[in-house]
Specification:
Blueprint (H helix, E strand, L loop, with lengths): L11 H4 L1 H31 L5 H9 L2 H24 L5 H24 L9 H18 L8 H28 L1
Helix pairs in contact: 2-3, 2-4, 2-6, 4-5, 4-7, 5-6, 5-7
Organism: Streptomyces thermogriseus
Protein name: HXXEE domain-containing protein
Keywords: Membrane, Transmembrane, Transmembrane helix
Length: 180
């Protein structure tokens, strides 16, 4: 019996795998970011003098509580798009865009590590969790016939939304912690 692509089922490993892969990746970041920033902002300041001083001050002031809160906010967003993906059999544009953003986010971590010429938070799990999961999930969506055609603007949207979600999660975390 031959199967048409649309006969394939997108199982929960694809849609619910996104928050699992995200959690593994963010555990690395939770463990590494605050200390890594404290140790490396002076090096980064010298290496990248064009970056505004306000960026370095904000990076130095990021504490573990704020970063953990931001990770929690982002986790809520990832869970929501994954639920949309599960409810639609992977057809959700929000889910597919988030999946693209997640994979590209992993590539951005690898580019950061290359620019830094060493380890940066997130660069250990990106080549073994983030990028492989995103590619695998996209292949499963493609085989099931539900992956929308990928255009450069879709990838730019995915990366842009990942960046916007990061900024939003840190903004919400700062506001939540300033109230406590």
């Amino acid at each position: 019996m031959t199967h048409k692509p649309s006969d394939h089922h997108v199982g929960p490993a694809v849609t619910l795998g996104l928050p699992a892969a995200w959690a593994l990746h963010d555990l690395e970041e939770l463990a590494a970011v605050p200390g890594w920033l404290r140790r490396n902002v002076p090096v980064l300041r010298k290496r990248f003098p064009a970056v505004p001083e306000a960026v370095w001050r904000r990076a130095e002031s990021l504490d573990g509580r704020q970063f953990a809160a931001a990770v929690g906010v982002m986790g809520t967003m990832v869970a929501a798009v994954s639920a949309a993906g599960a409810a639609t059999g992977g057809r959700s544009a929000a889910f597919q865009t988030a999946l693209d953003g997640f994979g590209l986010h992993g590539l951005a971590h690898l580019a950061q590590a290359a620019a830094f010429r060493g380890y940066t938070p997130g660069s250990a799990t990106s080549p073994v969790v983030v990028v492989p999961f995103a590619l695998w999930a996209r292949s499963r969506l493609r085989r099931a016939g539900v992956l929308r055609p990928t255009r450069a603007r879709d990838l730019a949207l995915g990366l842009g939304l990942a960046g916007a979600a990061t900024v939003a999660s840190h903004t919400v975390a700062r506001r939540l912690l300033s109230r406590s």
